[in-house]
Amino acid sequence: MSSLISRNVQYVQPHRVFFTDGVFDGGNDCLAEAMRGGPADGGRRRRVLMVIEAAVAAGQAGLEEAVRGWFGAREGAWELAGEPLVFGGGEPCKNDWERVEGIWEAINGAAIDRHSFVVAIGGGAFLDLVGFAAATAHRGVRHVRMPTTTLSQGDGGVGVKNGVNRFSKKNWAGTFAVPWAVVNDHRFLRSLAEGDRRDGIIEAIKVALIRDAGFFEELEANGEALAALDDDVLRRLIRRSAELHVEHICSGGDPFELGSARPLDFGHWVAHKIEPMSGFSLSHGRAVAIGVAV
After folding, report:
1. pLDDT band, very low/low/confident/very high, at 39 (cuts 50, 70, 90)
2. pTM of the prediction?
3. Can you list the domains of the chain with their CATH numbers?
């Protein structure tokens, strides 16, 4: 004899992607707006742990000082939880489990709780790592992503996946977690090498192929401008690519990929095989380009 209790668990969380220029400029309140929302907390200050990819900190002159200044001007509402945590990114960071434990230690040491924030500034691999640590600390702390590459601003950084590599397999350990917010600051792209700026174009082509023929035709018509990395065209590409990815995640019916259909992974089966084969020397964008061609 058996019996059953069955109810539907309803979970609603906005998926918000902000676009700005100069997020840590003194008068820019985009990050403050991104961190607002959620249950009332009696007006207490929220603690914020900043985690920054080393290459971004080095390439953006005065970034850490700007972060301190931004929080200092808003200390009544937001408390910077110690010095920003800075370490190397790129795919190698996802192969190092000690990095996960290091972020956990920083979260614990800074007394970050489920009403606090972990804000990550970096490329897609870096965001994967920090997002995984944030999603597994206290069963999930509030996490804001600040993607710093064309690839992550238009694709991975606006998604709901986190992960690290184990057993020589990409993203073997990971979570699905909707970020509290995503902040795309176009100014971060200025310090990117040319090849890294081009990497994001393939993910835009991918999502255009599967979701928006008109967008694909626009990319085709602007081929020369894209090849020249025209700034206005890149802005439109990133925004539309991000919009299409978010639309699919939120309205595609399977945001956490419980089924077998994963259209946003078009080209990724091959990409995830050849990236480890190359010792992760092949960039994700180039690997996806090969996968789409295959």
Report:
1. low
2. 0.90
3. 17-190 (3.40.50.1970), 192-253+260-293 (1.20.1090.10)
